[in-house]
Amino acid sequence: MLETRPLLIFKTIVDVGSFTRAGVRLGLSQPAISQHIRALEREVGAPLLVRLGKSARPTPQGEILLHYARHVLGKIEEVERALAEAADGRTGVLRIGAGGAACQHLLPGVLREFRSRFPKVDLHVRSGYTQLTLGRVLEGDLDVGLVTLPLRAPQVRVTEVGRDELVVIVPPQHPWAARRRVPAGELAGKPLVLYERQSQATDLIMRALLEQGVFPRITMEIDQMDAVKEMVRLGLGLAVVPEWAVRREVGAGALHAVSLGKAGLWRAWGLACLEQLLPSPSLRAFVRLCTEHLPRALAA
């Protein structure tokens, strides 16, 4: 099997036109250069170079080998360059998971900044509520998941990135639109539009209501945040959603957000990675960007 070093020596002789100049470029003695070429000619079974005084040129068989040597050596340089870029985070693939609303409202700004810094890293994003995203991280299908806390998974390493408030949203004409907060007990009997039944947010909301003796009257279960907001805007029910998910509509006067209870209903967010996974440079950069950007995005 042909080795790359003799091919490089052969190509260099042709490029510079002599054994002597090839030795200088490669840092090899002329006898060593000649030995490599003789061994290469024995291996291919044909003369590859013709010496003309102090110069050398390829034979017809050498022209054929030269064509493939350039191709092979070029590909090896390409592989080495790609591996070096992957090692310092400039290339590769980063697989990210998050809930649908987070993909819409929280991740775009972080991903835009990441792409500007790492344009050659392919980003693969999959949506799914926290438990689904956590399962994908544990199975190795994702490198990192943006999830709500706490998690019950000792196999993962969690980096906290901030806290957000879950607020009650009502249409502008609703009596609560003039209020800043509402006790959980006042939701009794009110039609509730539920976002993502299987999410940890739903568990938190149900627990907060049940602790106040409120058995919610769920009239709709929807897994699209925009659809939930539209149902509320049309007066078809109330919903409890992240404040950041309705910031634009509240600012435009299309919806009104009310805190739930005296202290509000808050939760924590984090990034989950496998504990045993050695973070790549691109993953470390993504985590760092999230810790810089998400605290403000979550609680502004």
Summarize the entry for a quick read.
The chain folds into 2 domains: 84 residues, Orthogonal Bundle (Arc Repressor Mutant, subunit A), CATH 1.10.10.10; 212 residues, 3-Layer(aba) Sandwich (D-Maltodextrin-Binding Protein, domain 2). The protein contains 11 helices and 12 strands. 45% of the residues lie in helices and 26% in strands.
Question: Please, could you describe this protein's structure?
Answer:
This protein has 300 residues and is of the alpha/beta class. The chain folds into two domains: 4-87, Winged helix-like DNA-binding domain superfamily/Winged helix DNA-binding domain (Arc Repressor Mutant, subunit A), CATH 1.10.10; 89-300, D-Maltodextrin-Binding Protein, domain 2, CATH 3.40.190.290. It has helices at 4-16, 19-26, 30-44, 60-87, 100-105, 107-117, 130-138, 200-211, 225-233, 247-252, 281-299, and strands at residues 49-52, 55-58, 91-98, 120-127, 144-149, 156-170, 181-182, 191-195, 217-222, 239-242, 256-260, 265-274. The strands form three sheets. Strands 3, 4, 5, 6, 7, 10, 11 and 12 form an eight-stranded mixed β-sheet that branches. A two-stranded antiparallel ribbon has the order 1-2. Strands 8-9 form a two-stranded parallel ribbon.
Which key phrases capture this entry?
single chain; 300 residues; alpha/beta; Arc Repressor Mutant, subunit A; D-Maltodextrin-Binding Protein, domain 2; 2 domains; eight-stranded mixed sheet; two-stranded antiparallel ribbon; 11 helices
